[in-house]
Design brief:
179 residues, alpha+beta, Nuclear Transport Factor 2, Chain: A, 5-stranded antiparallel sheet, transmembrane helix
C-alpha cells in the first residue's frame, strides 16, 4: 500500500490559461450570433423567392386569361351577337364592364345591320407589370374582319394594353386600351 500525502488529496489544478473560459464563451456567443443571422437571412431570402413565385404565377395566369379574353373580345358573329356580348361581359369587371354594357346595344345594332363578322387571334402577349391582384398585359392581335359591304376578310392588326384584376379567384379585364 502506498501512503497518501496531502498533495495527492488536493483538487486537480486548472491547467487552462487565464481568460480561456471567457474566450470560449465569446466564441460560442459569436457562433450563435452568426447562426441566428444566417437563419434570419435564409428566412428573408426564402420569403422573397416566395413573393417572386407568387408574382410569376399571377402574371402567367393573368396573361393566359387576357389572351383568351382578347380573342373573345375581337371575335364576333352578327348572327350570335347576344351570345358574344354575354361572353365579353362575363370576362370583364369594373369601369370597362360598365362602359361595354352601356355601348353594347348600339354596337349590336350596327354589327347586325352590316352583317359583320370578326375573328381575333393573339399573335403574341407579354406581362408588362404584375402584383398579386393586378396585372398589365400587352397583346398583339390579328383580326380578320368582313361585313356585307366587304365580304372578303380584311386583316387588322392591333396592339392592346389590358389590365387584369383578380376578382373572386378569376382574372377579369378591368381596362382595355388600343395602343
Amino acid at each position: 500500500m502506498t501512503a497518501t500525502t496531502d498533495d495527492d488529496t488536493t483538487a486537480p489544478t486548472d491547467t487552462e490559461a487565464p481568460g480561456t473560459g471567457r474566450q470560449r464563451r465569446l466564441s460560442v456567443a459569436a457562433g450563435a450570433a452568426v447562426l441566428v443571422a444566417a437563419t434570419a437571412m435564409t428566412a428573408v431570402l426564402g420569403w422573397q423567392v416566395l413573393q417572386l413565385r407568387k408574382l410569376d404565377a399571377a402574371g402567367s395566369q393573368a396573361r393566359a386569361a387576357a389572351t383568351s379574353y382578347a380573342e373573345t373580345l375581337t371575335s364576333i358573329d352578327s348572327s350570335k351577337i347576344d351570345e358574344n356580348f354575354t361572353r365579353v361581359l362575363d370576362g370583364a369587371t369594373g369601369e370597362f364592364k360598365d362602359m361595354y354594357a352601356q355601348s353594347s346595344g348600339q354596337l349590336g345594332r350596327l354589327l347586325a345591320e352590316h352583317k359583320a363578322t370578326a375573328h381575333g387571334m393573339v399573335v403574341e402577349s407579354a406581362v408588362k407589370s404584375a402584383t398579386p391582384e393586378t396585372v398589365e398585359v400587352l397583346l398583339f392581335v390579328d383580326q380578320s374582319v368582313s361585313n356585307a359591304a366587304m365580304p372578303e376578310p380584311r386583316l387588322d392588326r392591333s396592339r392592346i394594353r389590358m389590365t387584369m384584376k383578380k376578382v373572386d379567384g378569376r382574372w377579369l379585364a378591368s381596362k382595355v386600351e388600343l395602343i
